[in-house]
Design brief:
The complex is a heterodimer of chains A (173) and B (182).
Chain A: H1 5-16, E1 20-26, E2 29-34, H2 39-48, E3 56-64, E4 74-82, E5 87-95, E6 101-103, H3 112-123, E7 126-128
Parallel strand pairs in A: 2-5, 6-7
Antiparallel strand pairs in A: 1-2, 3-4, 4-5
Chain B: E1 15-17, E2 20-22, H1 25-34, E3 39-43, H2 46-55, E4 78-82, H3 90-99, E5 105-109, H4 110-115, E6 136-138, H5 145-161, H6 170-178
Parallel strand pairs in B: 3-4, 4-5, 5-6
Antiparallel strand pairs in B: 1-2
Helix pairs in contact in B: 1-5, 2-5
Classes of the chains: A alpha/beta (173), B alpha/beta (182).
């Protein structure tokens, strides 16, 4: 029998109460929010529960919302997949901009190791307890977190681009 | 005279007599160097594919004395950088350049190697001339094999006319020092 989304919601609410909220069906994927301090407990529960059986972490990534208030600046998104019933689940958790840190899930899902390093690399989100939290894609000397909106995408060292020819000056003079 | 389709490189200017030929050392060395440039392909993307066509039978870079593609920097004369170089790869490119023996030349093939191309972004090196000196730039995205061959011929012209003393000149030392290469 297929795993119903109402069962997921009931089980989570019964176990975690106020820490899981905003259950929504977004297109074909069931989504919810989790308080950031409960993330490891929720993922462990989803993985080990006999009916839920979310045995696979498809993706883990960060998002930056610069316009949100300080407590909702950063998001870590977890995509889980139940291979037995073929059900997917999206979990969002918000982090404050002043101190973006969350417990690592790399001990629950080993594949989270590199995904968390990537998220740290691009957003500067600190995964507490990660065995080797260092940059993975960008060069080690980099000091910015390039996917944060306050950092420019373009390289400052570019010398052959004249802004006038790219419509970047106001009066194009 | 026997009619032959084989094209030979012209001898440099000099004085011909019975049993001797006198010319400048510069010209002879330049001639030898220019017609035996061993390329070291540093190919990271689509320009590298065009280089493969350049080396293959149709365009045949071997006609210009570049038959032997050297995959070790120590035996190479001409570093051909083809493709996007990320900032993380820049130290490796530099190391490859430093491992080449003098005299050494560099061709930046394609827009990415020359200026970063369309990748005006935090992760991409904005032209390899930020880390190593470049002799010839080949434009194009990617350039046609003809353009790469043209770039090699331009470099041959540079090599042919280069003074044998250039590599020990203070200007050249200054150039290397500006890139912090010993």
């Amino acid at each position: 029998m297929a795993l119903e989304t109402s069962v997921i919601q009931e089980k989570l609410t019964a176990t975690f109460g106020e820490s899981v909220f905003n259950f929504t069906q977004e297109k074909s994927i069931f989504s919810l929010e989790v308080a950031s301090d409960k993330i490891t407990a929720v993922l462990l529960f989803l993985k080990n529960d006999e009916t839920l059986r979310f045995n696979f972490l498809t993706d883990l990534c960060g998002i930056h919302y610069p316009d949100n208030d300080d407590n909702h600046q950063f998001t870590v998104v977890y995509h889980l997949h139940n291979w037995i019933d073929n059900v997917r689940l999206k979990i969002k958790t918000y982090l404050p901009g002043s101190n973006p840190e969350i417990k690592t899930v790399s001990n629950i899902f080993l594949c989270a190791n590199w995904m968390e390093r990537e998220t740290f690399d691009f957003y500067g989100i600190n995964f507490v307890g990660h065995p080797q939290l260092k940059r993975i894609l960008n060069m080690d000397e980099m000091i910015s977190f390039p996917m944060r909106k306050e950092f420019p995408m373009e390289d400052g060292g570019r010398t052959d681009k004249d802004d006038r020819f790219f419509g970047r000056t106001i009066d194009n003079c | 005279m026997i009619e032959s389709k084989t094209k030979m490189v012209d001898a440099p200017e000099g004085v011909v007599g019975e049993g001797f030929f006198a010319t400048k050392l510069n010209d002879v060395v330049g001639l030898a160097r220019a017609n035996s440039l061993w390329p070291l392909p540093f190919a990271t993307s689509c320009c590298g594919i065009e280089f493969m066509a350049t080396m293959a039978s149709h365009y045949d870079l071997a006609r210009f004395g570049s038959e032997r593609v050297s995959f070790s920097p120590r035996q190479a004369d001409m570093l051909m950088v083809m493709g996007t170089i990320s900032k993380k790869m820049a130290p490796i490119l530099r190391q490859v350049y430093e491992q080449m023996a003098e005299p050494r030349w560099v061709i930046a093939v394609g827009a990415c190697a020359s200026s970063g191309g369309i990748f005006d972004t935090y992760s991409v090196l904005q032209g390899i001339d930020k880390v190593i000196p470049v002799d010839v730039y080949v434009p194009g995205c990617p350039p046609r094999p003809e353009q790469i061959v043209d770039g090699v011929m331009k470099l041959q012209e540079l090599v042919r006319t280069e003074s044998v003393r250039r590599r020990s000149s203070p200007e050249y030392q200054e150039l290397l020092a500006s890139y912090n290469i010993k």
